[in-house]
Design goal:
Two copies of one chain form a homodimer. By secondary structure, chain A is α/β, with parallel strands linked by helices. Chain A is built from eleven helices and twelve strands. In chain A, strands 3-2-1-4-7 form a five-stranded mixed sheet, with helices on both faces.
Chain lengths: 342, 342
């Protein structure tokens, strides 16, 4: 008897709203539900809407495909053993809440919980820029800076699930203070928040009249607006993205020298400014990283594999796709272990 | 029939001489041969003496134990697939030489090659400070600064065997130039060479009269001598080790935040100055690393596992012991894969 192809359901629990997708094990998207459930309305409403949407998708596709389960990406620290959210800055009422058990009980299906940065890396590894590599480091530049590692095809969680805090690696030990207690963290140079801060600083210093004018005209100015100024040739805006690239280059050169992974991906909203910050990033990498230069076939080592540093390719869908990947990976592991046991 | 216990032979091919040990699979040392073969006399003589010593040990113990093979630690970059030394700064005539094949052919026994920093980490994991953890990062402070990672009990080689260049991670992006092309590398702050350079700088600046006097009296002054001055309360010498600890703290806080490993070990000759540099190291770690603080049970998270940062415990024997571990690990892997295949 030919077995059915399987499908799974991924949930991206964002800081603002909720997206749910059914994806076939080949990677083909079956359906996506973008709810207008505002996450700030609270845990119970969110869980209710989430379970309704999951139930609808499960029912709709279960006749054609075998259902592998649900993966949920959460923007916070997860206790993987208990399936509990330990802490989530943008979801205060979710702390210490047994999300996994709650959803499993309501739906009667297996649920896998994962940190959203890890989901994004897994999504890129499955269907995005990381398809052809077995290991990667992903840096997500958003309001903050997140990160994740995949070693030998699997998410690296670290001892207590806290691995991947790349945003708090030190760029310069005496740099700007960070909320984490450190100074000069990558997040203070390469997040959307840092870009706005740096723009405010140059404007306040009277060094960038045009940028200052735009900022004063719109106190809600965004990193995207500063990117537009940089694209139009504004020197002050370009200097800010030069700093973004420089800081990323300093931290990535340390990571390349330490880990010699085949791929380092830059994702998140700020990554769309790639063309204005990446020249400085590559300049620093080439200057600073002995391993990057040694693994560049253009340099002097034919036959050596190149270290790839590039943009993530799935944009805002990476986390949703990676969440859907979680139950598929788990069922593979189960199948292998059952085969070995048998 | 009860099977024999097994033993293996480890070789530590140092920059100056050669040590060879037979070790039982339980970790008990059977015998160590410290040859006076000067490695600078050249490859052929070294290989000849090495094979003689291995042969003697193999013959001596093969009646009582099953022989698992030979592991050789080499201070350089190894091509693991071909068993070739790609580059070794202190062994220039070994570059591109197929060491593994050569020794295997002469002895008729399996040989495993490995980088010496990786061997040291493996030794500490087997019989030293890392016995009880499944993952660790080891930083070796010697003439230069080396490093190695063990993830899930196994050496992490990276894409082309270049992982572990922790000595070239950036402490401060505008710091002293390094031979690798970068500025402000850890090696420029925490190696024996850096300690001598910093002592020379403070002496030349006329800031440390007593230290300057000692240095002028002995142009061959060592990092160890500066450590002695620090122990005796010399403020300039203490400031130098404060810088060593600060730089280690900056880099380790980035590694702890990125990887959340259970253990970070400091080894190598300079590690014996632990008491004078470790206070600054822990001060920086506590200040800078959000993951270090979150995984410190003393702080606010009962039940959480603590990140251990401590001295390596096997001293100069770590690499020799780790080299002997290599063939034992390989035969375990073979046994498991045979069981699965069967």
């Amino acid at each position: 008897m030919a077995s059915l192809a399987s499908f799974s359901i991924g949930v991206d629990l964002g800081g603002t709203n909720l997206r749910i997708a059914a994806i076939e094990s080949s990677g083909a998207r079956l359906e996506t539900i973008c709810t207008d459930t505002l996450v700030r309305r609270g845990r119970n409403q969110v869980i209710g809407e989430m379970c309704n949407a999951i139930g609808r998708l499960q029912k709709k596709f279960s006749s054609r495909y075998e259902f592998a389960g649900v993966g949920v990406g959460v923007p916070g620290i997860i206790d993987l053993e208990t399936g509990t959210v330990c802490a989530a800055a943008h979801l205060p009422d979710w702390a210490n809440y047994p999300v996994q058990t709650e959803i499993q009980q309501r739906l009667g299906t297996p649920v896998v919980l994962e940190n959203d940065a890890n989901c994004a890396a897994l999504g890129e590894k499955w269907l995005g820029a990381g398809r052809d590599v077995n290991g990667l480091c992903m840096v997500t530049l958003g309001t903050g800076v997140g990160g994740a590692f995949i070693f030998n095809g699997e998410i690296w969680h670290g001892m207590v699930g806290m691995a991947g805090e790349i945003g708090h690696m030190t760029v310069t030990p005496d740099g700007p203070s960070c909320g984490c207690g450190n100074r000069g963290c990558l997040e203070q140079f390469a997040s959307a928040t840092a870009i706005r801060r740096m723009a405010g600083e140059v404007a306040a210093a009277g060094k960038a009249l045009e940028l200052a004018h735009a900022i004063n005209a719109n106190p809600e100015f965004s990193a995207k607006m500063i990117f537009q100024y940089a694209l139009q040739g504004d020197a002050a805006a370009q200097q800010i993205f030069e700093t973004v690239g420089w800081a990323l280059g300093v931290v990535l050169s340390s990571l390349v020298d330490a880990l010699n992974l085949p791929m380092y991906l830059i994702g998140g909203g700020v990554a769309s400014a790639w063309q204005v910050f990446s020249p400085a990033l590559f300049r620093e990498l080439s200057r600073r990283s002995i391993v990057f230069r040694a693994s560049d076939p253009a340099e002097n080592s034919p036959g050596k594999k190149k270290t790839i540093v590039t943009q993530a390719s799935l944009g805002g869908d990476a986390g949703l796709i990676g969440a859907a990947r979680l139950p598929l990976l788990r069922s593979q592991t189960h199948a292998v272990s059952q085969r070995i046991t048998a």
